[in-house]
Amino acid sequence: NAGVTQTPKFQVLKTGQSMTLQCAQDMNHEYMSWYRQDPGMGLRLIHYSVGAGITDQGEVPNGYNVSRSTTEDFPLRLLSAAPSQTSVYFCASSYSRTILTDTQYFGPGTRLTVL
Amino acid sequence: AQSVTQLGSHVSVSEGALVLLRCNYSSSVPPYLFWYVQYPNQGLQLLLKYTSAATLVKGINGFEAEFKKSETSFHLTKPSAHMSDAAEYFCAVSLAGGTSYGKLTFGQGTILTVHP
Description:
The complex is a heterodimer. By secondary structure, chain A is mainly β. Chain A has strands spanning 4-7, 10-13, 19-25, 31-37, 43-51, 54-57, 64-66, 76-78, 87-94, 105-106, 110-114. In chain A, the strands form 2 sheets. In chain A, strands 2, 4, 5, 6, 9, 10 and 11 form a 7-stranded mixed sheet that branches. A 4-stranded antiparallel sheet of chain A has the order 1-3-8-7, with no helix packed on it. Chain B is mainly β. Chain B is built from no helices and 11 strands. Chain B has strands spanning 3-7, 10-14, 19-26, 32-38, 44-50, 56-58, 64-68, 73-78, 87-96, 102-106, 110-115. Chain B starts with a strand and ends with a strand.
């Protein structure tokens, strides 16, 4: 298993540009999520999905869109990049839909800079 | 709403010394608690988790944590620090959301430095 993979590893955008961060997992996990990590703030949940075709907002969803057309893929779209979206983005997945006690597996992260 | 507070954004210990990383949670219902570790330029890796079985939880790399309901705490300890333990550690709490699906809330992280 490759686990959770994310592309790209690094990205620099100009304000107003759009882009998609890719996330894929090959573990047949139901639950997938996106977090952003900022210094001193831990990880904050952006969006999550409990299965194909089902997505919901997390703590900081503004400026981001997601879709889940397949079990394996959960892309994160930045509609119009802003400097405030400069961050490290992590995708995670877990087997259970409820994740109450389930372990989340994290990807290696995408470091995004918006100029 | 649940929350997690990690006391101390930086902790520094000598190699061989006790490691103690503090985590307190706020929750109106019994929580499920996790400790994750993040090594430089990597994703998060699960160290251990409390899921309402034993209150003393043993994890990987010699770490353990004790759930204390009366203190609303879930502190992470290791008897003897190794240089390889230098990393950032995150405490997290999982509770059912409004749709009954769980959501993971993280603390702000504690950077552990180990001196020779």
